[in-house]
Amino acid sequence: MKKTFFSLVTAALMALSLNAQDKVTKTVLELGRTDNRTMEHADYIARNIGGRIVGSHMLHHAEDWVIQQFRSWGLDVTVQEAVEIGVGFDRGPWSGRMLSEDGMMLHFGTPAYTAGTRGPQKGRVLLEPKNQWEFDRVKGALKGSWVLLETGPTSGLAIDASPKADSTRAALLAEGKEGTVLMYRQMVDAGVLGFIRPSKLPMQVLYNRAMCFDLTMDNLPKACDILLDEHQFAQIKQKVVDRQDFQLEFDIRNHFFPGPMKYHNILAVIKGTQYPDEYVMMGSHLDAYDIATGSTDDGQGVCVTLEAARLLAAAGAKPKRSIMFCIWTAEEYGLLGSKYFVQNKTIPWNKISNYFNRDGGPLAATSITVPPAMYDDFMKACEPLFDYNPDIPFTVTKREGEPQARPTTAGGSDHAYFAMNGIPAISFRESDIFGYDFIYRDIWHTEDDLYDKLIPAYMEHSAVVQAVTAYGLANLNHLLSRDGLYKD
């Protein structure tokens, strides 16, 4: 009799739990249709924050805003210091023009952590001297001049002006070998205003990777590093070759200030009721290059992650397992935030069911491919999505064939250090299902990474997909199986 009684009680409790889960999921789906705020988050990032590189005050502003959002929705928030840089950098306005009868405004950018001008500065233009003889021929004219460097296509990184690079250039020069900007240090010491390199469009403009973490207020860059529209570069070069009389004027407000500047991973949690020390995780990175607003890379990922958290909180989610929403720092400087989280075992690796990363275009999460051992669990977790939006159908696919080897090197995005350490980091397939002709390369680290490149219908849909999937996995009675995840 007692056994029957307890069985009935257990069954009743399970039914209540399933009804509560079903109610939460239905509420998330309904809010996703009627009160989806993904684009409100995107508007704030574009309008009030914009570019936000490590070293800038705007990244601090972005951190504060994200923390405030999570806390306003009732989530537990941990702020994890992950990165420190000795000198800060803020970008101000920039402009340039060619001063001549056929003058024009110049289309250009400068990598972060490179020199600005002392207000508007104008000077003549010279071609790069590529050896000692050419340098000696123009050394008296270099001071106060702009120098054209024909380096070919650029990745957007700053010229390497580190002592190591200077030594390499000096050795090549002494051996009579070819190299990139061999007379760089000699030209800087001669007093050039800056260097101008051609850039394809849309323009990629990144940062001073070689030196930003080694700078002090005593060894700041002196010469500007300008990436100019390749078409204007060709026109200006021809004028120099023809020895025409003209000048270029640049006004570049790149501001350095004393640090240290510290940056953080922001980790928000909906605590699990039965397995609070086990986690389903999702995340995206907050930092972005400052040539544009970083709306797509990775503002869209941050907005989708935030909205997934808000939807679950608004629906009163009380999952069995904890759900963690991770807003990483310093992805663009080498995945530094997520690397710190994983390598320091912030969450024990065996307690992470899966980490979902979003860091691509503003596209729709339309499917997920999983190992056979995970297939039934994902089918159960994602079932509410199968008929959620007929215009953007969602599917779960069982992986066929042998698993791939576990990756041994980092790359791509913040999923990398999870995968390298055998932690499931399976992400959604994202599609341009309506055919909006979105090409990620157009915005990737370029001046076109702007709010108007976002696709609201896709992002709003993806927030719902991530929320429902994470909630479903968090309510399983077990962590996802890792059988067949990797070859090893």
Layout of helices and strands:
Blueprint: H1 2-34, H2 38-49, H3 57-72, E1 76-99, E2 104-105, E3 108-109, E4 121-123, E5 125-127, H4 132-138, E6 146-148, H5 163-174, H6 184-190, E7 194-199, E8 224-229, H7 230-241, E9 247-270, E10 275-285, H8 295-314, E11 321-328, H9 336-343, E12 352-357, E13 364-370, H10 372-382, E14 395-398, H11 416-420, E15 429-431, H12 440-443, H13 456-474
Parallel strand pairs: 5-6, 6-7, 7-8, 10-11, 10-12, 13-14
Antiparallel strand pairs: 1-2, 1-9, 3-8, 4-9, 9-11, 13-15
Helix pairs in contact: 1-13, 2-8, 8-13, 10-13
Characterize the structure shown.
The protein is an alpha/beta fold. It has 2 domains: 21-86 and 261-474, Aminopeptidase (3-Layer(aba) Sandwich); 104-245, Glucose Oxidase, domain 1 (3-Layer(bba) Sandwich). 34% of the residues lie in helices and 23% in strands. It is built from 13 helices and 15 strands. The radius of gyration is 26 Å and the shape is elongated. The relative contact order is 0.16.
> What's the story with the biggest beta sheet?
7 strands, mixed
What is the distance, rounded to the nearest whole angstrom, between the alpha carbons of the first and last residues? 50 Å
Radius of gyration: 26 Å
Multimeric state of these chains?
A: single chain
Strand content: 15-25%
Helix content: 25-40%
Spans of at least 5 consecutive residues whose pLDDT stays below 50 are 8-16
User: What is the overall silhouette?
Assistant: elongated
The number of E-state strands comes to 15
What is the CATH C level class of the largest domain, in words?
Answer: Alpha Beta
